[in-house]
Amino acid sequence: MTPTLVRHQSRTASAPSAGTTGRARDWAEIQERMLVPLVEATYERLDVGPATRLLGLGCGSGLALLIAASRGAAVTGVDRPERAARLALARERLVPETGRDGAPGMGASRLVTGSPADIKEQGRPPYNLITAFEPIGCAAGDTEGLVSTLEAAVALAEHGSAVVLAGWGPPERCATSAVLRVATRLTARLNDAPRWRPSARDDLEDVAARAGLKPDGSGRVACPFGYADLDSAVRGLMSTGAFDAAARATDQAQVEKELIEALHGHVRRDGTVWMPNVFRYLIARIP
């Protein structure tokens, strides 16, 4: 599935979306859909449907959960407290009538702020699918928290359940890699800032092994980043959080200026921005 180019209300590059809520909406409306081909490929491979009880880690504003729910799955999403604005948008998508989590049983949708350890499972059967679609291979050390999160999630799932991990493909096949280097260059003065690093071939297998999981297949999926214009591209990329440290090291306007410069080579004649990327997924099993 190719991302649809959607036009959004323009703003100047130096005027960021208002606050955390604006950033969350930029994520939900612009950036989150870029990984839909990856999500759909794994759901198809695992035959996600009415028998699926899915736990989505780092679920953000819930698009991957919504796709699973549309296939009949019962879904639970969990994300960190600092992403409460994204979770609020996920709640609008998944439980629009009441704003409350569904009742226990098949077809219910739940959203939890915190970690898998904060999920109370009263009356609910264990999960049989865990997903972590937030790609690793974007910043140094971005696997550290994922391992402990997976370990907590595994305790809530059946033996033999599938766990899906996602990561960036080889840098030479990801046009966005050059844009991500902007963050590394601007954060050079901050010794404690996470920096972009090229994705390693065995990143996903390493995470799985450290979490006590057994690999059971993998694949690659084309996920081009397509934007209606430069403004949408900057807003979408800034919403990922990958440039937060760069903004602290310099300022928002400087980061956006350098992003625009890095993106110019990907602007097409009609003004749209197009960056081909390949993402990789690993399916592992809980022993």
Task: Give an account of the 3D structure.
This is SAM-dependent methyltransferase. The structure is a single chain. By secondary structure, the protein is α/β, with parallel strands linked by helices. It is built from ten helices and nine strands. Strand 1, helix 3 and strand 2 form a beta-alpha-beta unit. It is globular, with a radius of gyration of 18 Å.
CATH topology of one domain: Rossmann fold
Q: Which percent range describes the beta-strand content?
A: 15-25%
Shape label: globular
Q: Using only CA atoms, what is the Rg?
A: 18 Å
Distance between the termini: 33 Å
Q: Which spans have pLDDT < 50 for at least 5 consecutive residues?
A: 6-18, 102-107
* Average pLDDT rating: 86
Helix content: 25-40%
Task: Pick out its properties.
single chain, 287 residues, alpha/beta, Rossmann fold, seven-stranded mixed beta sheet, two-stranded antiparallel ribbon, 10 helices, 21% strand, globular
